[in-house]
Design a protein that fits this description.
The chain is of the alpha+beta class and 122 residues long. 48% of the residues lie in helices and 17% in strands.
Length: 122
Amino acid sequence: MSEEEILYDKEETIERIKEQINSLPIILYMKGNPDAPLCGFSQQAVEHLKALQKPFAYVNILQDEAIRQYLPEYADWATFPQLWVEGKLIGGADIIAEMAESGELAELFNRIEFDWDSVDED
């Protein structure tokens, strides 16, 4: 496979990322999925989010190499998982844990009103 074949369209990928974070009130970019996280940091993040009993969207970056490649640059945040709430980067596993322990994460999630039934799950 040539170098050109493995590169993804950066502008297209950034637009896709922007669409995701702006259309979904809570989205976690993670390794694996909430029922089967594939790294300890993703597992830790998911445990904190699930404890709040609020819905959240996720993207398995291991199944989307373009997002895995360009999200760190777009976010100016090099690691995964990444939690985005209402279009803003909250942070990774450590920040999620700190916010969960302080109650700040629950406060943030409780302020969000969203009709999850209206989300297009394509």
